[in-house]
Amino acid sequence: MPDLNGMMLFAAVVRAKGFSQAARETGMPKSTISRKVAQLEEQLGVRLLQRNTRHLSLTQVGALFFQHCETICHEVEAAKATIENTHNDVSGSLRVAVPVSFSQETIASLCSGFMRLYPNIQLDVQFTDNDVGLVGEGYDIAIKYGPLQSSDLVARLLFERQPILVASPGYLKNKGTPATPKELAGHHGILLGTSRSAPIWPLGKGSRKTMVNFQRKVRVNSAVMVKQLAMDDFGIAMLSSSSCKNEIARGSLVPILQEWPIEPFKVYGVYSSRRQLATNISVFLDFFTKRFNSQEAAQALMF
Asked: Looking at residue 167, what is its pLDDT?
């Protein structure tokens, strides 16, 4: 039987995208975690992770095994929560607004895990890019991209993602590779946004930050579609580095203007300050932060 502790440490490495970060998050020595994962691979007789000096990636069987390890981790948490909930039962309804650009598959998986962990909460999840009124429209939580305007809302930073500009080799061969931000004005861009979004990208950081215009080829509110259109040679796109890591590794997308690093995207969980932080809101935000990073970590390590 595989070592349960080794399985949980393997899952921690995948979520952290590396042994060093897993060591920091678990408080265990990196050498111990590496040895436990190696022993697990020896027990199973398969390679779960491909390692070299610069990269770590899941093998095909490792990706499948990770899903089972995550289920076990969830069940362990659920068992702990069952004991805790005998003293403080988490229940009630929870209405959540999520941006359309988020992966519906990832959100579905997150919600399934959350409902298993907190079976007495009734979820109502709506994908929308409308500027929802939390109180007036009955939402308890809205997941929003920052920066946020000041209001009577409380915003909790959930995570950050590093955006980069990418294009396909075919597009760059036909249109040329921009060498400066100003040259983007002569290029087609694929805009991720709503009908109110303008064809403008913020490049650089701090005093070097500049807003640049481009020729909008198409505007969609799906990051998956933006990536596909970029790979199909329709223009330059701004995407999170983790969402297109595999395409860059395969050469189907190419990073451009890397000497102009972009401020990270910030994603917040927002709730009304008119309410005290209810337990169901708190546990949802805690779960969302941890599990969203876990889901994306697994996707980012798959080749």
From this structure: 96
The 10s digit of each residue's pLDDT in 32-76 is 898 999 999 988 899 999 877 667 888 888 888 888 888 787 777
Record the tokens describing residue 31, joined without a space: 């050498």
Buried b (16+ CB within 10 A) or exposed e, 206-232: eeeeeebebebbebbbebeebbebbbe
Please, what is the end-to-end C-alpha distance for the chain in angstroms? 28
| Helix (H) or strand (E) run with residue 231 in it | helix 223-231
Token pair 């805790």 is found at: 84
Distance between CA 152 and CA 271 in Å, rounded? 9
255-266: average pLDDT? 88
Give the relative orientation of helices 104-117 and 279-300 as an angle to the nearest 10 degrees: 130
CB distance 74 to 113 below 8 Å: yes
Residue 106 burial by CB count (10 A; 0-12/13-18/19+): exposed, middle or buried? Answer: middle
- Enter the tokens of residue 117: 């962990």
Give the pairing of strands 163-167 and 236-240.
antiparallel
